[in-house]
Design a protein that fits this description.
Distance between the termini: 43 Å
Order of helices and strands: HEEEEEEEEEHHEEEEEHEEEE
Mean pLDDT: 84
Largest sheet: 9 strands, antiparallel
Strand content: 35-45%
Shape: globular
Number of strands: 18
Low-confidence stretches: 1-36
Number of helices: 4
Structural class: alpha+beta
Helix content: 10-25%
Number of domains: 2
């Protein structure tokens, strides 16, 4: 299309007005102590706002919805709300922790009626309508099979005291989509991806156990992918106590406090098999510096076999991350 001088002046005027609007909004948020930016792409607008305590992202689609993400700076937690554009009522409300759904999520219809409530901490779902969601029986059966696999590999006592299902990280695949466990299934699931947390001392869990079942409930064996499983045993246990582990770490030179936050578990695969073994890692942060806009953390590790209580080795590792 050939633009005349008059048309070019008109479009320039519109662009100037849009820029002024953004500038005025920026000035307003600046006086409120808020940093603000906007990005418009077709029919979707994205607004980014920074306050003293959080980062807020608002996604606006003029045909469907408004999504609001409120990420706290002090915690790895993000509050989420999705709003029906037509009725201005809440569609979905919940919380993300470290990028995954956690806590209680609520789902509504366009009139504001509560349809479904999911508790990701307990791994439970309540549907308030008379009609249940499709394939619910399939999901329940697959969860029973997954639990039975863990009991066969670790024993019932260890399963009950040291393993917890992580429903927020569990998911399923259909022919065309990948979805998280409690997402509404519009077609029959073909694969079920399970994630379980494991702990040494009850109060700190790590998401280590991950495996997949096919539609027949058969374990999908992939030796290239970590599973967190061990060779089947009836009496598996972490025999070392927290005090014993800390004492051993101090004897090996670590300067740490007994705050219950300075350890983790890791799973090491056994070559040529689907199984592995667990190691208890006690760590101390020995260096924490900022260099060329990167945060560099250096740790000293003491590695212990939690089953036999035997010391394995010490290590030093460096982790590097970008500063925002």
């Amino acid at each position: 299309m050939k633009l005349t001088l008059k048309k070019m002046c008109f479009f320039a005027f519109l662009e100037l007005m849009a820029c002024k609007l953004v500038v005025y909004m920026g000035i307003y948020f600046w006086f409120c102590g808020v940093y603000y930016s906007i990005n418009i792409n077709g029919q979707t607008s994205i607004i980014n706002i920074e306050t003293d305590s959080s980062y807020i992202k608002i996604i606006y689609d003029e045909e469907n919805f408004i999504k609001i993400f409120n990420s706290l700076k002090s915690q790895k937690k993000e509050y989420y709300d999705e709003i029906f554009l037509t009725t201005k009522k809440i569609k979905t409300s919940g919380t993300f922790s470290e990028g995954y759904s956690s806590g209680i999520w609520k789902y509504y219809d366009s009139s504001g009626y509560l349809k479904k409530e999911v508790d990701y901490n307990k791994g439970t779902k309540i549907v308030f309508s008379k009609k249940q969601e499709p394939f619910d029986a399939v999901f329940l059966e697959m969860k029973k099979i997954a639990d039975s696999i863990l009991i066969a590999h670790f024993g019932g006592n260890f399963y009950n005291s040291n393993i917890k299902w992580n429903s927020g990280r569990s998911s399923y695949n259909t022919k065309n989509t990948h979805n998280y466990w409690f997402d509404y299934a519009t077609e029959r699931p073909l694969y079920f991806n399970f994630c379980y947390d494991i702990t040494c001392w009850q109060n700190k869990y790590s998401p280590i156990i991950e495996f997949t079942l096919d539609s027949l409930g058969q374990l999908v064996i992939d030796e290239e992918k970590p599973s967190g499983l061990i060779k089947p045993t009836e009496n598996f246990a972490f025999n070392i106590t927290y005090k014993e582990a800390i004492r051993m770490a101090k004897e090996k030179g670590l300067k740490i406090k007994s705050d219950n936050e300075n350890y983790t578990l890791r799973w090491i695969p056994i070559n040529g098999t689907f199984y592995g073994e667990y190691q208890l890692v006690i760590f101390e942060l020995i260096e924490n510096i900022i260099k060329k806009k990167h945060l560099i953390k250096k740790y000293k590790l003491v590695i212990i076999n939690p089953f036999s209580k035997q010391f394995i080795k010490t290590e030093e590792i460096t982790k590097k991350g970008c500063l925002d």
